[in-house]
Design goal:
MscS_channel_2nd, rod-shaped, Alpha-Beta Plaits, cell membrane, three-stranded antiparallel sheet, single chain, disordered C terminus, 273 residues, alpha+beta, 8 helices, SH3 type barrels, 3 domains, Mechanosensitive ion channel family protein
Length: 273
């Protein structure tokens, strides 16, 4: 009887032991897969950090905004690859996940079409570099100094210290003027000399602006007749200056011309001469 009981107990315990053994094996397999997946993610993160530091040293000559964008994009793509590899190790099917993410990306892309156009324009502006931070530009209805060039927008500071944020596509799709790209600018002055004799007045105006410290000797200033009628003669006086002092030079040239031609001379001035 005891032998029979022992046999029956063994028959009952055997499946239980087998199930426990199988459960332990499955649990161990799952833990190993999880550890392997975590290891992949850690190695991916370490690899990204090392590659990013190396890229920053290698791409030191590349424009900072462009360098930052490329590095961040590469980091994101590498992280996605590492995540997909980790999911595959765990046993999660990534095909469906990729399809869902693709559909979601398409929907988001359609919803953010205008934003993506600014993004694409930002890439083009950074790549072709029609202007850089510190340049004075005119475009999209704004004129001022470029403060920063971003992926989606460009920040401009106007002469009266107002910050303007311009969407990149507005700049890239329209006519853009870089007023300081060439290093020098021409100051165009329209001068009404009335009925004064033309040649002596031209000579006088040129001798007036040439010694000015903001006026360049190369190219030399020019003065030409714009129009003539019985009542007045209009001249174009065109001195050149460094681009960064354009506004100051333009203001001082106007003042010089006004004092020389239009401001009545006092007896004290005449006595001094």
């Amino acid at each position: 009887m005891e032998i029979l009981s022992f046999v029956l107990l063994a028959q009952v315990a055997s499946p239980v032991a087998t199930s426990a053994q199988n459960l332990s094996y499955v649990t161990l397999q799952i833990l190993l897969k999880l550890l392997w997946a975590i290891g992949i993610l850690i190695l991916t993160r370490i690899g990204i950090n090392v590659a990013s530091r190396t890229a920053r040293r290698v791409l030191v000559q590349v424009e900072p905004t462009l360098r930052k964008f490329f590095i961040q994009t590469a980091e994101f793509l590498a992280l996605i690859v590492g995540l997909v590899a980790a999911l595959n190790v765990v046993g999660i099917q990534t095909t469906t996940l990729v399809a869902v993410l693709g559909a979601a990306g398409l929907a988001v892309g359609l919803a953010l079409q205008n934003t993506l156009s600014h993004f694409a324009a930002g890439i083009m502006l950074i790549a072709f570099r029609p202007f850089e931070a510190g340049d004075v530009i005119e475009g999209a209805g704004a004129t001022g100094v470029v403060d920063s060039v971003g992926i989606f927008s460009t920040t401009i500071l106007t002469p009266d210290n107002v910050k303007i944020v311009v969407p990149n596509n507005n700049l890239f799709a329209g006519t853009l003027k870089n007023l300081t790209a060439m290093g020098t600018r021409r100051v165009d002055l329209e001068v009404d000399i009335g009925n004064r004799p033309i040649e002596p007045t031209i000579t006088s105006l040129l001798s007036l602006v040439q010694p000015h410290p903001l006026v360049l000797n190369d190219p030399k200033p020019t003065c030409n007749v714009a129009s003539v009628n019985p009542e007045k003669t209009i001249l174009y006086l065109r001195p050149w200056c460094a681009a960064e002092v354009y506004e100051q030079a333009r203001s001082e040239m106007h003042q010089l011309v006004h004092e020389a031609l239009y401001q009545p001379r006092t007896s004290e001035d005449e006595g001094g001469h």
